[in-house]
C-alpha cells in the first residue's frame, strides 16, 4: 500500500511546531525493543498500513529494496524458533562466564507470544533505482532496509504497538525456511504486537547489561 501525499503536502511543506517536536522526542525516547508481548491479535489491516508507512523511508537511488515477509504458517514459525534456540545456545556458550547467568535471564525472544512476525529482506538484485549510489557502497541496499525497519518501529509505537528485533538467528537457515529468492538478504526478523508493559529505559540498561553513552562521547571533529 503506497502512501500518497495530500494536496497540502504537494503545495508546501508542513510546519512542525514545539508541541510536535516534543511529542517526536517522546516517541523516540519511548521506542523500545520489546521482548514480552500480549497474545492479542492486531486490528485488521494494521500491519499493511504500518508497512505502507515504513515504505516512506529513504532508499539509495529510490531503489526501495525492502521486502516484508509476513510469517503466518505455524510450521515455519516453529522452524524459526528452533533456529533461534540453537543460535541462542551457541551465544550463551560463547559468553564470558561472568555474564553467562545474566545473559540467560534476558529472555531475548518474543517468538512465542507476538501475534505477528515479519522477516525483512534486502533485495540485492532489484533493478529499481538503476544502481544509482551503489557502485562504491553496495551495502547501502541493506542500510536502506534498516531505515525502513526503524520507520516501521516508530510508526508501530505511535499506534501503541511494540516491535522486537530478533537478531539471534542464522540468516541462511531463515532464508531456507521462508523459501525466498536467492538475491534476498535477511536484515531483520521482527516480532510485532502489543507490549506487556511500557518502559522508558531499555531492558538491557534496566538489567545492568549495558548503559548508554553520553552524546559528547560519540561526536568527533576533524
From TrEMBL:
Signal peptide: none annotated. InterPro entries: BluB, Nitroreductase, Nitroreductase-like, Nitroreductase/BluB. Transmembrane segments: none annotated. Its EC number is 1.13.11.79. Pfam families: Nitroreductase (PF00881). Gene3D superfamilies: NADH Oxidase. GO terms for molecular function: 5,6-dimethylbenzimidazole synthase activity. Keywords: Oxidoreductase. The keyword Oxidoreductase applies. PANTHER family: NAD(P)H NITROREDUCTASE RV3131-RELATED (PTHR23026:SF123), NADPH NITROREDUCTASE (PTHR23026). It comes from Methyloligella halotolerans. This is 5,6-dimethylbenzimidazole synthase. It comes from the Bacteria. Residues 29-194 form the Nitroreductase domain.
Amino acid at each position: 500500500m503506497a502512501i500518497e501525499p495530500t494536496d497540502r503536502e504537494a503545495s508546501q511543506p508542513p510546519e512542525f511546531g514545539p508541541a510536535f517536536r516534543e511529542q517526536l522526542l517522546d516517541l523516540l525516547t519511548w521506542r523500545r525493543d520489546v521482548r514480552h508481548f500480549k497474545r492479542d491479535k492486531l486490528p485488521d489491516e494494521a500491519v499493511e498500513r504500518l508497512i505502507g508507512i515504513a515504505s516512506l523511508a529513504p532508499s539509495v537511488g529510490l531503489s526501495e529494496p525492502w521486502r516484508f515477509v509476513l510469517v503466518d504458517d505455524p510450521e515455519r514459525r516453529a522452524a524459526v524458533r528452533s533456529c533461534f534456540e540453537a543460535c541462542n545456545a551457541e551465544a550463551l556458550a560463547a559468553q564470558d562466564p561472568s555474564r553467562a547467568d545474566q545473559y540467560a535471564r534476558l529472555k531475548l525472544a518474543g517468538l512465542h507470544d507476538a501475534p505477528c512476525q515479519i522477516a525483512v529482506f534486502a533485495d540485492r538484485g532489484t533493478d529499481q533505482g538503476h544502481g544509482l549510489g551503489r557502485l562504491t557502497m553496495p551495502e547501502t541496499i541493506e542500510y536502506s532496509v534498516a531505515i525502513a525497519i526503524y520507520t516501521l518501529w516508530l510508526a508501530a509505537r505511535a499506534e501503541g504497538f511494540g516491535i522486537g528485533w530478533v537478531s539471534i538467528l542464522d540468516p541462511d537457515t531463515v532464508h531456507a525456511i521462508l523459501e525466498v529468492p536467492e538475491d534476498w538478504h535477511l536484515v531483520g526478523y521482527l516480532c510485532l504486537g502489543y507490549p506487556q508493559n511500557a518502559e522508558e529505559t531499555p531492558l538491557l540498561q534496566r538489567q545492568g547489561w549495558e548503559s548508554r553513552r553520553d552524546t559528547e562521547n560519540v561526536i568527533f571533529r576533524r
